[in-house]
Amino acid sequence: MTNHQINPNKWIDLYSDYLFNYTITRVKDRNTAQDLVQDTFFAGLKSMKNFKGEASERTWLISILKRKIIDHYRKINSKKGKAEVRIAFNSDSENEGDWMEQRVADPFDKTAENNIENTELGIAIHNCIAKLPEKQAQVFKMKTILRYDTEAICNELDITASNLWVIIHRARTQLASCLEKNWF
Amino acid sequence: MSEKNRIFMNCTEANHTCNKTQYNDASFWAKIKLNVHLLYCRACRKYSSNNAKLTKLMNNSELDFLKSSEKDTMKHNFDEELAKHD
Q1: Angle A42-A46-A51 from CA coordinates, rounded to 5°
Q2: Residues of B whose CB is below 8 A from A118
Q3: Which of A7, A52, A174, B42 is the most buried (most CB within 10 A)?
């Protein structure tokens, strides 16, 4: 088995997006997710000497993150001092007593199967984006996922609009062929 | 008719417009021209459908990334911690 090295200096660049994405599908709140990812990096730093090199850094960090997410849910549930588990439960006082509505089957609601598929798709896309050159990945993320304006991206990265479209074009072509191999 | 207003576009322009439509960034006239091009160009039809598929996948995946400012804050905090650690 190859022995993996640990190098915290590159953690943020390499793994923050992956960890963040992993968290956001589980806690549904950007700020909480950010805090959890940050905590994970800190915890990883503290227990660096426990890293045996048997798994990759990313797997190792994810396993820490999993504990952090569980702890997070434990904490918010104990704070309320209630025995029931609350996971994004709609507790508006306005809707209280509206139990009928919650029990009606919603044909448009996402099924568990759907959710699993989407999570897997997310991972597939993530791996494909990771294969792109850095600049292309950066521009593509900003444009497609964060939905920045063309102008905003151009200003931030100091490129022209036509330059941006060429980068987007290359990224899309590459992504499409990558996903075709790994997803369809 | 000037170069810009002619109804037929070449494949490079068509791809460019197609990419723009994925982000709702193409003008109305550009979209018409793209559709005219797609009527007779099989290669671009294929490209367009693939491109639309990719957009759909991206939307379905509910992928979310950190903004670069958020990442910078995180990096900053982490660097402080790292300095303490050494």
Answers
A1: 110
A2: 60-62
A3: A174
Judge contact between A33 and A23, C-beta under 8 A. yes
pLDDT tens by residue, A102-137: 555 555 555 666 767 777 777 788 888 888 888 888
**ipTM for this prediction:** 0.71
Q: Rounded CA gap, A154 and A102, in Å? A: 46
| A183 contacts in chain B (CB < 8 Å) | 57
Contacts of B50 in chain A (CB under 8 A): 176
Asked if B64 has any chain A CB less than 8 Å from its own CB, the reply is yes
Q: Do A145 and B16 touch (CB under 8 A)?
A: no
Domain finish residue from A88, A117, A137: A88
In a domain, A78, yes or no: yes
Count structural domains, chain A.
2
Domain ranges, residue A23? 8-88
The enclosing domain of A138 has a CATH number of 1.10.10.10
Chain-centroid distance of CA A136 in Å reads 19
Q: What is the pTM of this model?
A: 0.64
Interchain CB contact of B68 with A (< 8 Å): yes
CA–CA separation, B58 and B52 (whole Å): 10
